[in-house]
Every structure is written in structure tokens, then in C-alpha cells.
């Protein structure tokens, strides 16, 4: 087998990131944009010791789960699959990682909870801007490069953002505005960001720049005249040579410095840099499932160990006596406190610090904790934190995960610490992509 050699084979499975697997004499080849069951002709593009990568040249036998005509955009690598096939892939992905880490069928994995339709769900779009041969480009980065691909329509972001993106691109070109060049570190506009609330009544525009530029005021006036839903325009200055999107300095150019969204009957103020789930419909599904698994009572006291701006905490506060939200980022704690105040929620208290330290402090003050909700970043929980939860006698842990691999790893740790593992419920927060969230209940035996 050599690079550029052409083969034909049947797709028998998927990798964890949705590539199709074809085996040639038991040697696995990973191929983009193919579907399990399809017969494909492909060319070898890369060979490693134990696997290779191929490029599909022709689909000889198409799957009924193939969807045609939706262009790939950044991260949306499963849009060639029907939504039913995407959900099947995600359930299997979670099952595979659980089997690998915890042992075959040692934990039940339920069917992935999906949306009615997996398109136009993202309420936040961060779009890079480039100028190439006098053409203004806005869209997404070509895989493994820093070259921006122009797009007219992204099928996972709000359609309102597509219209704004196309108008903004034309406006930047028409006004001949300064665009940042990362090679020379000169020029102004780096990214344009749009955030819109769930009922599509308020939009924030974020302009991320290397430096202020001539024509900025007129640019803001024209954008706000184009769409009356725009209630906020923010300028963020990032003059560092970096891939990080935001800089430290933000100023308000128009309207308010936030938009307001309602989730599960609770109102949240969202600023330019607030962490807020990008799929509000599925966020309600995920958090409702987490609280359902916790089987909470009106007299319970619970901890939300990675509380962010208080989303899960304020959901839970409606069902229990007291919620303590813990967060290491001070700005998020301040947002959470303001969100509680704005919703007249008085039984949620937000504390700054590391979860294990704050929980130990609460227990030392004789606070009786009935359950802990953890919603960690992709790297999962620190093992020391999980051991602390066990040694403190926490009976119920509801684990909300954005990475099934670290969920499985942490469940294995908790099993070793005497916890019974509940069923894992995957939730599709990001249709069209290979990412999947999951939630499970761990109970001290």
C-alpha cells in the first residue's frame, strides 16, 4: 500500500470524530465525508504505522442516510449525514468510550436526545476576517491552516447571523476598511462576532480589532441601521500576536453592553465575553435531565461546582432549599450574582474559589450537602477533587460532561471510590459536529 494508490472498500464503522473506517487487508483507513455502509472508491493520502487516511473519490453505493448540498463549515463535519445517523453515531461513540474505559456493557448508555431539526441553532458566531488579493473574506478557517474560506451560509449558526455576515463583508469592502494581517501584524479588523437571544429580539455585534480604524463610527451606524434587532455594539482591542480571539480592553460603541436571554424561565444578562451555552434549546434539555437524575427535594442543599454565570444553579434553585454555586473566574461569579438578583432568586449563593476548598469550608461550617453537580471543562475533574468529594461523604454526584472520554475516566475513578454508576444520557448540543454532551448520576454505595 502506497500514498496515492486507489482502492475500493465498504465503510464499516466511524472513528470518534466521525471519519469513516474502511479496512484493506485488515489495515484501517480513515476517510472524511463517508457514511457507514457505503461502498467508496478512495485514494490514500497519508500512511502511518498502524493506520492511514484516504480521500473519497467516488461513492459507488450511497447510503440512504446521506444528505447532499450542505457545504462544510468550520467544525460542522457531520452535515453529510442525516440527523438520525448523527444521533446514532453519537450514541455509539459514547457507548464505545464507556466500554473501553469501564468494561463491556458495565454502564447503560441511553439513546442520544436530539433536536427536532439540527440546523441554525448556534446563537453565537465568531467570524474571522481576512483580505486576500483585494477580496474581503469572512467565513471559517480552512482545516489545518489560517486561510479564511468565504461562505454565504453556515447551516449551524442562526440564519440572522448569515444575513449579518454577508452584509458586513460587503460593507467592509465598500468602505475599504482596514483589515488585520497576521503576517505583518498590521491592519485593524480581526474578527466580527454576533450574539442573538433565543427569541431573536436582541443581537450584539462585537468588533475585534488590532487597533481603532478610520470609518469605525460610520461602520457602526450602517450596521445598526441594517438590522433593528442590534441593541449593542462592542469593540474589543486585541493587539497581541496571538490566536486568542479577545484582548483585555472592551468598550461600548452603541446601545447596551449586554443582551438578555431567557432560559427555563430565568433571565440572563450576556456580555461580549460571557460564557453562555450556544444552543439554548438543548441547554434546557441537558439541565432538565441533570436535575431529573438528581431526584432533588424541596429541602435539599446542593452545590454547583463549576457554576459559570449560574445557569444550572438558578435552574436548580427553583427546586431546592439552597444552592451554592462555586466558580474560579471572578467575572463569572459577579455575573451569576447579578443574574440571581435580577430574577429575585434569594436561595442561590455564589462563591469564588476552587471547588474542593469551598466545599471543605462549607462542611466545616456544618452545611449539610445533599448533592453536587459538576459540569467541568473538556479535561474533566481533577482526581484530587473527586477523592475529596468521596472523603467528604457526598452521597449524590450529577456529572454533566462535554467530553465522554473524560467522563468515562472520572466514572472509573468514582467506581473505585465506592460509587454506583448510573446510566449515561447523551444529549446533542452541537448537531452537525462530532461533539456530544452526556450526563450521569453517581451514588455512594
TrEMBL record:
One of its GO terms (biological process) is rRNA base methylation. This is 23S rRNA (Uracil(1939)-C(5))-methyltransferase RlmD. S-adenosyl-L-methionine binds at residues 277, 306, 327, 375. Residues 1-58 form the TRAM domain. The active site is at 402, 402 (nucleophile). Belongs to the class I-like SAM-binding methyltransferase superfamily. RNA M5U methyltransferase family. GO terms for molecular function: 4 iron, 4 sulfur cluster binding; rRNA (uridine-C5-)-methyltransferase activity. The keyword S-adenosyl-L-methionine applies. InterPro entries: MeTrfase_TrmA_AS, NA-bd_OB-fold, SAM-dependent_MTases_sf, TRAM_dom, U5_MeTrfase_fam. PANTHER family: RNA M5U METHYLTRANSFERASE, TRNA (URACIL(54)-C(5))-METHYLTRANSFERASE. Keywords: 4Fe-4S, Iron, Iron-sulfur, Metal-binding, Methyltransferase, S-adenosyl-L-methionine, Transferase.
Amino acid at each position: 500500500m502506497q500514498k496515492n494508490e486507489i482502492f475500493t472498500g465498504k465503510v464499516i464503522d466511524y472513528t470518534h470524530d466521525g471519519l469513516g473506517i474502511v479496512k484493506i487487508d485488515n489495515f484501517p483507513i480513515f476517510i472524511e465525508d463517508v457514511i457507514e455502509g457505503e461502498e467508496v472508491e478512495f485514494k490514500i493520502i497519508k500512511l502511518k504505522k498502524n493506520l492511514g487516511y484516504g480521500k473519497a473519490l467516488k461513492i459507488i453505493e450511497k447510503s440512504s442516510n446521506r444528505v447532499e448540498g450542505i457545504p462544510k463549515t468550520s467544525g460542522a463535519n457531520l452535515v453529510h449525514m442525516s440527523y438520525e445517523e448523527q444521533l446514532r453515531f453519537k450514541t455509539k461513540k459514547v457507548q464505545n468510550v464507556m466500554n473501553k474505559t469501564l468494561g463491556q456493557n458495565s454502564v447503560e448508555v441511553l439513546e442520544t436526545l436530539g433536536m427536532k431539526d439540527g440546523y441554525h441553532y448556534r446563537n453565537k458566531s465568531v467570524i474571522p476576517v481576512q483580505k486576500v488579493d483585494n477580496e474581503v473574506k469572512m467565513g471559517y478557517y480552512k482545516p489545518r491552516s489560517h486561510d479564511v474560506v468565504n461562505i454565504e451560509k453556515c447551516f449551524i449558526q442562526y440564519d440572522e447571523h448569515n444575513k449579518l455576515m454577508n452584509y458586513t463583508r460587503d460593507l467592509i469592502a465598500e468602505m475599504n476598511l482596514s483589515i488585520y494581517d497576521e503576517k505583518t501584524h498590521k491592519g485593524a479588523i480581526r474578527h466580527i462576532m454576533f450574539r442573538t437571544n433565543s427569541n431573536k429580539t436582541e443581537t450584539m455585534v462585537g468588533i475585534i480589532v488590532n487597533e481603532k480604524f478610520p470609518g469605525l463610527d460610520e461602520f457602526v451606524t450602517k450596521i445598526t441601521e441594517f438590522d433593528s434587532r442590534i441593541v449593542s455594539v462592542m469593540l474589543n482591542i486585541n493587539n497581541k500576536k496571538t490566536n486568542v480571539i479577545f484582548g483585555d480592553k472592551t468598550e461600548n460603541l452603541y446601545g447596551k453592553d449586554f443582551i438578555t436571554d431567557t432560559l427555563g424561565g430565568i433571565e440572563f444578562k450576556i456580555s461580549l465575553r460571557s460564557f453562555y451555552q450556544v444552543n439554548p434549546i438543548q441547554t434546557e434539555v441537558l439541565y432538565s435531565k441533570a436535575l431529573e437524575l438528581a431526584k432533588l427535594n424541596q429541602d435539599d442543599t446542593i452545590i454547583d461546582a463549576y457554576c459559570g454565570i449560574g445557569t444550572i444553579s438558578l435552574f436548580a434553585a427553583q427546586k431546592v432549599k439552597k444552592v451554592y454555586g462555586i466558580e474560579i473566574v471572578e467575572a463569572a461569579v459577579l455575573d451569576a450574582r447579578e443574574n440571581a438578583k435580577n430574577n429575585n432568586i434569594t436561595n442561590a449563593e455564589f462563591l469564588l474559589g476552587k471547588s474542593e476548598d469551598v466545599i471543605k469550608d462549607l462542611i466545616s461550617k456544618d452545611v449539610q450537602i445533599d448533592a453536587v453537580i459538576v459540569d467541568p471543562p473538556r479535561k474533566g475533574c481533577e482526581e484530587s477533587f473527586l477523592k475529596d468529594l468521596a472523603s467528604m461523604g457526598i452521597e449524590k454526584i450529577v456529572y454533566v460532561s462535554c467530553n465522554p472520554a473524560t467522563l468515562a475516566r472520572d466514572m472509573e475513578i468514582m467506581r473505585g471510590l465506592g460509587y454506583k454508576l448510573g446510566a449515561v444520557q447523551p444529549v446533542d448540543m452541537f448537531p452537525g459536529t462530532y461533539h456530544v454532551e452526556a450526563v450521569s448520576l453517581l451514588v455512594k454505595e
